[in-house]
Amino acid sequence: MAPLRVLCIHGYRQNGSSFREKTGALRKLLKKQLELVYITAPLTVQTAATEAVSNQENNSVPAAGGGEEPRGWWFSDIQARSFSAQQQCEKSLGLDDSISAVREAVKTQGPFDGVLGFSQGAAFVAMLCSLQEQKLELEFNFRFAILVASFRSACEEHQKFYDAPLQIPSLHVFGLEDRVIPDSMSRDLLPCFQDPHVLIHPGGHFVPAAAAQRQMYQDFLKRFHCSKIVEKC
């Protein structure tokens, strides 16, 4: 059984290399089910101005990995070029560039069966799924989404992504002890999906990959393996 190919979208102040490192346990847990492909956001984050956010977002571990700079998918504060999930704003900066980066990744590294995002990356995944369902990005053809520590953007110009419940099968993963994206913020995103599956873990701001979560991941992914086999036949 060939693994499902999944595009991985990192969190704010991470990059593709650091997110790959932080999801090593997940890759090991689901090595027979998934092939994870990592990309890096186009927006460079200013390190000195956001040091406190860095420590929170990355569980008090430095974000950068593999020589890459810390990156983000959009900035909620245009002047400071910074981001906070709680910050309300009328306009953001950089989202179009990030959508273009994903479009290019799908063209050059796809096709992908699904998409997985963490924190800001998971909020971005919800937007990508909305664009796909509105047929505004014809390159996108994700069959499922996994959103870890996700949230609904507080930016006014992003509310268009939440107009109608998304039909794409989704698994929403969040921790009861998450101090960066409280579980209440992740729960607020659930009504934006038609039939969301939920995996709650007792920990904080990270991608859980313990044996206790294996069955839930596998149960969610099983249908896509089955349909992939049928398609090949």
Tell me briefly what this model is.
With 233 residues, the protein is of the alpha/beta class. The chain has helices at 16-22, 24-29, 51-57, 95-109, 120-133, 183-189, 211-232, and strands spanning 4-9, 34-39, 43-44, 71-72, 114-118, 144-148, 170-175, 197-201. The strands form two sheets. A six-stranded parallel beta sheet has the order 2-1-5-6-7-8.
Q: What is the mean pLDDT?
A: 91
- Given as residue ranges, the uncertain stretches (5+ residues, pLDDT < 50) are 49-63
Q: What does the main sheet amount to?
A: 6 strands, parallel
Strand content: 15-25%
Series of H and E elements: EHHEEHEHEHEEHEH
What percentage of residues falls in helices of 4 or more residues? 25-40%
Question: Which CATH top level class fits?
Answer: Alpha Beta
- The CATH homologous superfamily corresponds to Alpha/Beta hydrolase fold, catalytic domain
Tertiary shape: globular
Let me know the number of strands: 8
Biggest β-sheet: strands ordered side by side in the sheet: 2-1-5-6-7-8
Domain Serine hydrolase: 3-216
Pfam families: FSH1
GO biological process, one term: response to retinoic acid
Organism: Gambusia affinis
